Amino acid sequence: MEILENIRLNVSLLRKRVPNLTSAARSVGLRPATVSNLCTGKIPVGRAEVKTLVALASLAECSLDELIIRGEKIDMIETGIKALDLFAPLAKGGTVGLVARPGMGQLVILVETFERLKKEGYTTLLLKPEGDHKELNDILEYFEHTTTSIDETYEKMASLGKKDILFAADRSHVLTGELHDLQERLQSIGIENVTTFLVDLKGEAVDEDLPYGPLETLWQFDMDLTTRHKFPAINPLYSTSSVLEGAHLDQHHLTISQRAQKLLRRYRELRAFVNVKGIESVPDAEMATYKRGERLEAYLTQPFYVAEAFTGKKGETVSLKTTLNDVQKILDGSVDSKEVDQLDYIGSL
Fold first, then answer.
1. Residues 7 and 87 sit within 8 Å (Cβ to Cβ)
2. Helices 50-59 and 32-40 sit at what angle, rounded to 10 degrees?
3. Is 71 a residue whose pLDDT tops 70?
4. Which among 217, 231, 223, 196 is positioned nearest to 82, based on CA atoms?
5. Which helix (H) or strand (E) holds 127?
6. Is 191:157 a contact under the CB 8 Å cutoff?
7. What is the DSSP-derived secondary structure letter of residue 140?
8. Are 260 and 86 in contact (CB under 8 A)?
9. Do 6 and 22 reside in the same domain of the chain?
10. What's the pLDDT band for 181 if we cut at 50, 70, 90?
């Protein structure tokens, strides 16, 4: 069993060999959502059907031994953003896809992440898409380098050498295949220290099963959280990361993350009844679950540094260790005496 847990898909190989994985998966009878969940680790490779893995290996024109990586540790980049570090941590050197409609805060969380990690020594770079995007003009100051073409991006990254790079690009560069070509060129000169963030300025990714191809991390934004101003509006049930595969993660982190998801899943179900029939519709036996779900949802909101001028709240950084301890207290009922609004937009407990 330990061997089965200590394996994952070779996502970078899939990305290299099958750039248009959505249509390729469908062509061999695979559901793109299943492939996406295998890539991010939401479905452990050890639980995948053999025929699914064989089909993926066939698409990538590789052997199963090449498709499945054993025993390699994935390094996590800690951001100090509670919801991200808990549910969908960044994989260093991997690719994260942001799935959101316009106005849900994807660019805010992008620049907030970049600002935080610049202090840790990362260099930040934005490849601007074609056309005029006012929302991008508003955030250019947060990037140390901006480029306008794949060739210019390649030259800039090559000149940065061994520095750790955070690279942001729009989905349009994925669809043209340019991003795939860039990653191949960088690998050919030994540059593998680039963590890539893919955004979708048109908001079309929400309608696709596999909008960016294979990913190590997926940040799915949530309309319900957005409309209730619960930021960052990261969906805790659908956002995920290959870092969360048991073999690569502290077991305490995995356990707390799974417990938190279970609580929030049931809380959301109960909340649907409350919205229609009122709080009295919640059975007495589940009232504690509902209230703790409310508290956890509130706790996972967080003031951002880049939004201080707009919110009037000082940005907060919370270490992963503190987040896990705080969430465990909420799950165990140690915070039941606190009002929900006391947990809204705080740092740690």
1. no
2. 90
3. no
4. 231
5. strand 123-127
6. yes
7. G
8. yes
9. yes
10. confident
Paired with 124 in beta bridges are 166
pLDDT the model gives residue 247: 46
C-beta atoms surrounding 182 within 10 Å: 21
**Gap between the Cα atoms of 150 and 336, Å rounded:** 52
User: How do residues 4-53 score in pLDDT, each as one tens digit?
Assistant: 456 778 888 888 788 778 788 888 888 888 888 888 877 888 788 888 89
Q: Give the residue numbers spanning the domain of 272.
A: 251-342
Peptide bond into 232 cis (omega under 30): yes
Q: Report the alpha-carbon distance of residue 106 to residue 111 in Å, rounded.
A: 9
CATH assignment at residue 300: 1.10.1140.10
**Domain-located, residue 131:** yes
What tokens appear for 18 in the block?
Answer: 């099958």
Of the candidates 247, 272, 299, which is a domain's last residue?
A: 247
Residue linked to tokens 């229609």: 276
- Bridge partners, residue 99, by sequence: 220
Q: What percent of the chain has pLDDT over 70?
A: 96
